[in-house]
Amino acid sequence: MSQGVLREFDPKNMLFRRLGPSGLRVPLFSLGGWLTLGGTVKGDPVKDIIQLAFEAGINMFDTAEAYAKGNSEVEMGRVIKELGLRRTDLVITTKLFWGLRNGPNDSGLSRKHIIEGTQESLERLGLEYVDVIFAHRPDATVPMEEVVRAFNFVIEKGWAFYWATSEWSAREIEEAHHVADKLGLIAPIAEQCQHNMFHRERPEKEYAPLYKKYGLGTTAFSTLASGLLTGKYNDGVPEGSRFAVHAMFKRTVDGLQKEDGQEKIRKVRELTKLAQDELQTTPTLLALAWVARNSNTSTVILGASSVEQLKENLKVLEVYPKLTDEIMEKIERILNNKPTPIETFGRPGLDRYGRL
């Protein structure tokens, strides 16, 4: 064992997929730090959660400069060092857009912030490089050529191996590819997007041509619709839940009282029954496996506020193989919200995964 390395990585029964068109293999389920790691969870519990993930075959950890005002990166870097994990065993990703200060150049996707923000993220992580650096949001105030050139500079410096996008429109991703192709530079390889049973239009329809044309892959977040798909909100908002603790979800909570919100809860009840009766599992694991079942999903980002929660969510590896075509069809009948295919006007259509 190399000096300083205390734990060897064992993939166990974890499945791995390529991240978009790249040669980088990532676990089908990864661990993210939004709201929890460094935020609502600090200290030893962060270490326990990451250790459990690593020992279960998860070697990809996702964070961002904005998560917990930089503390998510700090905590993640600290734990990697304390656990003695080999850097080459890991896939570390972070994201840039919202900086930690209020200066005019401390946020956005200017060349200045991309380069200096990357350096500051690496300093907080205590690492020499990350595997993938994401543009956390698009920036309409900056020319796309400046964005593409800046991320390529970061790659050339060895501070990241790849770059990717998060919450970009298909048009913006397409523009980045056109600019990169024109300049002979590296284009974004993946998109980190929201994808769950109630949020499907963008990942399943808008991005469909990009899957076909560029081999784009997604790193999916909010796969449980912030907990709605777990069934915990079927009878109101429990004390201590995400909707109760974080003010940012007030609009979501208010929406549950409206007709559309009540219809979603009705569907969650039906999904719960299907999960229990046919798969002997929970709606949580069903929802996670459902997103993983999409072949354009490179990885599903799990969130966890405790070791117990992560242990339960890791059971998704047992549920995933059970999602047969028949089960998927039953889910579709309950959801009744599958995006309509993109009009091809007589040209060859895309298959169910957005490919020829």
Structural commentary:
The protein has 356 residues and is α/β, with parallel strands linked by helices. The protein has a domain at 16-227 and 288-317: Alpha-Beta Barrel (TIM Barrel). Helix content is 40%, strand content 13%. It has helices spanning 44-55, 71-83, 111-125, 144-156, 170-183, 201-206, 208-214, 242-245, 250-256, 259-279, 283-292, 307-313, 316-319, 325-335; strands at 16-18, 25-27, 29-32, 60-62, 91-96, 130-135, 160-166, 190-194, 217-221, 297-302. The strands form two sheets. The chain has an eight-stranded parallel β-barrel. Strands 1-2 form a two-stranded antiparallel sheet. A hairpin with a 6-residue loop joins strand 1 (16-18) and strand 2. Helix 1 packs across helix 2 (71-83), helix 2 (71-83) packs across helix 3 (111-125) and helix 4 (144-156) packs across helix 5. It is globular. The mean pLDDT is 92. It comes from Amanita thiersii Skay4041. One of its GO terms (molecular function) is oxidoreductase activity. Belongs to the shaker potassium channel beta subunit family. InterPro entries: K_chnl_volt-dep_bsu_KCNAB-rel (IPR005399), NAD(P)_OxRdtase_dom_sf (IPR036812), NADP_OxRdtase_dom (IPR023210).
